[in-house]
Design goal:
The protein has 254 residues and is α/β, with parallel strands linked by helices. The chain is 38% helix and 11% strand.
């Protein structure tokens, strides 16, 4: 029997599920190697009870219903993989975490906004509720990383994810540094690599969508921003768009 896997979405745009469906030729190989038994984004007939080898989950946790869902997924899965920056860090929906949720919802939706839909406060990453065995960041995640992760996990290995910043990918591609040379507010020095420096390679400053790299040297990039007469707080604002909960906790510890 082929190993069973599930693909799930919580609060998010379903970008990761679309990325999986867009794997094109590789998707046929994946379907040939595994039995995708629970995938609402890809099938109207799903098995919500059987044991799963791997569950791939996108989206942040926004309410008690989703908290119960991720705990149920964790219980029935040998491995849980967080897919995309919402699942890994909280994502765009968590960027307003310091503000009171009822006030945010009222500002956006008016006095009749769906306040009860967010009954546990700000959106939070999966790891706040359950053990996450692997995180694949990105907005959306790279299809190449997803395919590599599936291949490695089916072979009993844990794939190695990048631990270096986008800056290194830029150097390997011999790109001109958009921050140092052109004075653009690029977050590449403190953003996790894995995108092959896609945006900087097209002369677009990195916006930090893959989340902060471990042990990011914020003091150094703030100094560079200052030297380039860019607002120092702009780098943190950039990173907060995708990873506000992580940054808030880092600042609390620091």
């Amino acid at each position: 029997m082929k190993p069973k896997i599930g693909i799930f979405g919580l609060s998010g745009c379903w970008g990761e599920q679309i990325a999986i469906l867009n794997c094109e030729d590789q998707l046929l190989d994946i379907i040939g190697a595994v039995d995708i038994v629970d995938f609402l984004g890809g099938s109207s007939v799903n098995d919500a009870e059987s044991r799963l080898l791997v569950s791939f989950v996108e989206g942040s946790v926004a309410n008690a219903r989703e908290e119960a869902k991720i705990r149920q997924i964790r219980e029935r899965s040998d491995l849980v993989v967080a897919c995309g920056s919402c699942a890994c860090f909280g994502g765009v929906s968590a960027m307003d975490a310091p503000f009171e949720r009822p006030k945010v919802i009222e500002t956006v939706y008016g006095s009749n906004g769906p306040i009860k839909s967010w009954d546990i406060g700000p959106h939070r990453p999966l790891s706040d509720f359950v053990k996450v065995d692997l995180a694949i960041p990105g907005c959306p995640m790279e299809t190449t990383e997803f395919v590599r992760a599936v291949s490695a996990l089916l072979n009993g290995d844990m794939p190695l994810m990048p631990t270096y910043p986008v800056c290194l990918e830029c150097k390997m591609k011999e790109n001109e540094c958009l921050l140092v040379q052109r004075g653009l507010p690029c977050a590449g020095p403190v953003t996790m690599a894995g995108c092959d420096a896609r945006c900087p390679s097209h002369n677009i400053a990195c916006i930090g969508c893959r989340g902060p790299v471990e042990e990011a040297n914020m003091a150094s990039i703030e100094q560079i921003f200052g030297d380039k007469e860019l607002p120092k707080e702009q780098i943190k604002l950039k990173l907060r768009v995708f990873a506000a909960p992580v940054l808030d906790r880092t600042e609390e510890r620091g």
